[in-house]
Amino acid sequence: YQATVGLSPAEHLGVTLAGGAIALAAHGGKTAVRAAVTASPEPFSNMTLSMAEDVLAIFLTWMSTRHPYVGAFLVAAFVLAIIVMMRFVVKALRRLLQGAEHELESRDF
Questions:
Q1: Running DSSP on this structure, what letter comes out for residue 7?
Q2: What pLDDT digit, counting tens, does each position of 40-65 carry?
Q3: Which positions ≥6 away from 70 have C-beta within 8 Å?
């Protein structure tokens, strides 16, 4: 609470909404990546991804407590990267679903 004492209620709301948007983007991106990697038949990609997630979480926590501006910049860069990657995932899913739709239309049931 100490860090937010000087903020007005409107600023509190803005910061809360920004935090929620960042959390939504981060968890959405993580879910998309996890779904893509889980489909892989070999176990090493899943283990590597889990380890990388843990290391990144610990690193960002440490960086944010020791160097808050650098930590904030890194988080912003990662969120931007997630948003860009999510666009590619959405486009790929649309193409996949369009192909499935055409396949279903061509079949006689």
A1: -
A2: 777 788 888 889 888 988 999 999 89
A3: 63
82 burial (CB, 10 Å; 0-12 / 13-18 / 19+) is: buried
CA distance 4 to 22: 18
Q: Which of 64, 62, 68, 78 is nearest to 25 (CA)?
A: 78
Residues 92, 36: Cα–Cα separation, whole Å: 12
CA distance 82 to 75: 10
Contact by Cβ (8 Å): 90, 32: no
pLDDT confidence band for 66 (50 / 70 / 90)? very high
Contact yes or no for 82/25 (Cβ under 8 A): yes
